[in-house]
Amino acid sequence: MLSLRFLGRWAALLGASGLLAYGLDHAHFPAALLLGPMVAAIAFGVGGANLSVPKFGFQAAQAMIGCLVAHTVTGEIVGTVMDDGFLILAVVLVTVLVGAAVGWALTRLRILPGSTAAWGSSPGGAAAMVAMSEEYGADPRLVAFMQYVRVVAVVLSASIMARLLTDVSNVVPASDPITTAPLALLATLAVAACGAGLAKLLRLPAFALTGPMLLGAALHASGLVSMALPMPVLDLAYATIGWYVGLRFRRETLRETLGAMPGIVVATLGVIALCGGWAYGLTFLLPIDFLTAYLATSPGGLDSVAIIAVGSKVDVSFVLAVQTLRLFVVLVTGPIVAKWIARGVPAGS
Predict the structure, then answer these.
(1) How far apart are the C-alpha atoms of 32 and 141, rounded to whole Å?
(2) Residue 306 pLDDT > 90
(3) Residue 252: its pLDDT value, please?
(4) Which of these, 28, 25, 29, 33, lies nearest to 234 by C-alpha position?
(5) CA 201/CA 109 separation, integer angstroms
(6) pTM for this one?
(7) Which residues have CB under 8 Å from 166's CB, separation 6+?
(8) Exposed/middle/buried for residue 224 (C-beta within 10 Å: 0-12, 13-18, 19+)
(9) Residue pair 324/95 in contact by the 8 Å Cβ criterion
(10) Which residues, other chains included, contact 145 with Cβ-Cβ below 8 Å and sequence gap of 6+?
(11) Which of 50, 150, 165, 182 has the maximal Cβ count within 10 Å?
């Protein structure tokens, strides 16, 4: 009976996800297969459905998104980094400093403990931030809540922005240029497995995503491997990531963090607004449109931003160059920033 109830909950989640994704797709929202399942999963998670996506499933979905990103990478992305390397680094550092400033403010106002505020406000690498935070004295539940509230807010705001600024009548679906030849599909699966395995051995951050992305990008850009990503595979990867993020929201977590909710919401909106302002400024410094700058500076997950970028008319190479570099910078500087913010805790707090 328990197993039937469990299967029934999953069936209900699948149905709700499908309906929401269908509606969002017909409204021409980018990443409808990510948004629909995520919104449905949030409702089920908070409602006490007690469902979760296995870590392996989430990592497999990340590997597929890594291959999707790799397919978009050509020699242009290398040229982008070479030509605009200084400005890309500046974009990354400003975004990281914005997150640090918000964390410092939360600490000074005694809304959150210093270490927790630092890890929770770090822009990007949500899963890695949660995993690393406990080792540095932060509350991983509160960090997870802050990180995934921001991920959801960034995905929703970026999707709305992409919907408003993209001429959907002329957008080519991201899967059109991707072949579905059997040998190419097998090669892609091999890249996903080998890339994730090598990245794990090398202890790279977010190995399931970055490994296939880096290996696949090198092989695809050099013409050695042709990537194949059929739409059903991509749709399942999108939905899995949406479920993984949404189902992490729990009623108990909401109760425990209710007192910090206003500060978390303000911090989330503040980071998004400051990054949006920086994106607007970039349009005067670089020959890029606002949507490209907005997605590049969005303080959300690399995987979800990549999905939205590929489905929109933006400079994907620039967006991914900034997001990828920022992921590494955040993970390297995270412990240093956390210690600095923790020192800013007012005496007697």
Answers:
(1) 28
(2) no
(3) 72
(4) 33
(5) 41
(6) 0.67
(7) 30, 291, 312, 313
(8) exposed
(9) no
(10) 120, 249, 253, 254, 257, 264
(11) 150
Cα(271)–Cα(260) distance, integer angstroms: 16
Measured between alpha carbons, how far is 247 from 89 in angstroms, rounded to an integer?
34
* pLDDT > 90 fraction of the chain, expressed in percent and rounded: 11
DSSP readout, 176-243?
TTSB--HHHHHHHHHHHHHHHHHHHHTT-TTHHHHHHHHHHHHHHHTTS---B--HHHHHHHHHHHHH
**Do residues 175 and 230 make contact, with C-beta atoms less than 8 angstroms apart?**
yes
Q: Which helix (H) or strand (E) holds 170?
A: none
C-beta contacts of 275-283 below 8 A and 24+ residues apart = 275/95, 275/98, 275/123, 275/299, 278/91, 278/94, 278/95, 278/98, 282/87, 282/91
Query: Could you tell me which residues are beta bridge partners of residue 228?
Result: 179
Name which of 233, 225, 251, 243 is nearest 52 in CA terms. 243
How many beta carbons lie within 10 A of that of residue 153, not counting itself?
Answer: 17
Contacts of 265 (CB under 8 A, 6+ apart): 149
Cβ partners under 8 Å of residue 190, min gap 6 = none
Longest dimension (CA), the chain: 65
- What is the reported pLDDT for 341? 75
Could you tell me the two tokens for 274?
Answer: 């400051």
pLDDT of residue 173: 44
